[in-house]
């Protein structure tokens, strides 16, 4: 419904949401397990089959978005490991490979994915959730942070390795649950504005970022998620139009950077 505008870019793909449920329950993002729990079983196999994904972690859970046109490949790739359902009128209906076989082509074996440069700004972030009825108390502040606190984009510096800080704010409203990522200084302002408790993930987080290549390229989430999963390091992951953002516990940032550097060097 948004009118065409030269100031707005819209990706040409329609995306579908995959939610991974374990034993009938969705994994809780507030336990800081995040993308690491599904890295090996979902993200890595999809990357091997050339399926591009967008990753969205919230305080409550994690979502994987895949392009609608890739659904046959996704189903055939994951059917051996998962029971797959689609939601119809609030009911979960089993999906089989035969349901989406039209147009399915067996992917060629994937070559080793290109590893993209990772930058690690020093900004510290917090992941938190608020009750919907508390929003009026902080609405003005959230609008100010979301729309008016950004510095002008740095044309030459977007992919540089010496980025010391980054402006980043994420607000998700999914089925009534509110999830917010904000820098530690903004979080202090919000806490002072609220007269009721707010749940926040323990500890601040450091923030490696990956500038996104063309949208058809895959394996970016796997580049970060696989080595962290192998080392049992928690991660909170958000894909955006221009960047992928991975938040990890601040006390583990040195180990994360070392792991990613080792992976980068081994690929050369």
UniProtKB/TrEMBL annotation:
Keywords: Cytoplasm, Phosphoprotein, Ubl conjugation. Residues 11-78, 216-261 form the CASTOR ACT domain. GO terms for molecular function: arginine binding; identical protein binding. InterPro entries: ACT-like_dom_sf, CASTOR1_ACT-like, CASTOR_ACT_dom, CASTOR_fam, CASTOR_mTORC1. It comes from the Eukaryota. Pfam families: ACT_7, CASTOR1_ACT-like. It is found in: Cytoplasm, Cytosol. GO terms for biological process: negative regulation of TORC1 signaling. Gene3D superfamilies: VC0802-like (3.30.2130.10). Belongs to the GATS family. Forms homodimers and heterodimers with CASTOR2. Interacts with the GATOR2 complex which is composed of MIOS, SEC13, SEH1L, WDR24 and WDR59; the interaction is negatively regulated by arginine. Interacts with TM4SF5; the interaction is positively regulated by leucine and is negatively regulated by arginine. Functions as an intracellular arginine sensor within the amino acid-sensing branch of the TORC1 signaling pathway. As a homodimer or a heterodimer with CASTOR2, binds and inhibits the GATOR subcomplex GATOR2 and thereby mTORC1. Binding of arginine to CASTOR1 allosterically disrupts the interaction of CASTOR1-containing dimers with GATOR2 which can in turn activate mTORC1 and the TORC1 signaling pathway. This is Cytosolic arginine sensor for mTORC1 subunit 1. The lineage of its organism: Eukaryota, Metazoa, Chordata, Craniata, Vertebrata.
């Amino acid at each position: 419904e948004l009118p065409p505008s030269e100031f707005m870019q819209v990706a040409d793909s329609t995306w579908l949401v995959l939610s991974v449920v374990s034993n009938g329950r969705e994994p809780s993002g507030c336990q800081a397990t995040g993308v690491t729990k599904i890295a090996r079983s979902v993200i890595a196999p999809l990357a091997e089959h050339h399926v591009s994904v967008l990753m969205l972690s919230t305080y409550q859970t994690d979502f994987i978005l895949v392009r609608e046109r890739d659904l046959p490949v996704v189903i055939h790739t994951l059917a051996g490991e998962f029971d797959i359902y689609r939601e119809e009128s609030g009911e979960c209906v089993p999906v089989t490979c035969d349901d989406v076989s039209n147009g399915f082509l067996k992917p060629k074996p994937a070559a080793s994915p290109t590893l993209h440069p990772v930058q690690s700004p020093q900004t510290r972030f917090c992941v938190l959730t608020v009750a919907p009825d508390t929003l009026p108390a902080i609405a003005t502040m959230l609008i100010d942070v979301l729309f008016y606190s950004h510095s002008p984009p740095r044309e030459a510096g977007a992919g540089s390795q010496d980025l010391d800080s980054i402006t980043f704010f994420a607000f998700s409203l999914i089925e009534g649950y509110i999830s917010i990522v904000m820098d530690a200084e903004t979080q202090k302002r919000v806490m002072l504005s609220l007269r009721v408790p707010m749940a926040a993930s323990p500890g601040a987080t450091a923030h490696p970022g990956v500038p996104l290549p063309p949208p058809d390229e895959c394996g970016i989430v796997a580049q970060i998620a696989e080595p962290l999963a192998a080392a049992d390091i928690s991660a909170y992951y958000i894909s955006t139009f221009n960047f992928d953002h991975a938040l990890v516990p601040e006390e583990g940032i040195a180990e994360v950077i070392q792991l990613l550097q080792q992976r980068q060097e081994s690929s050369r």
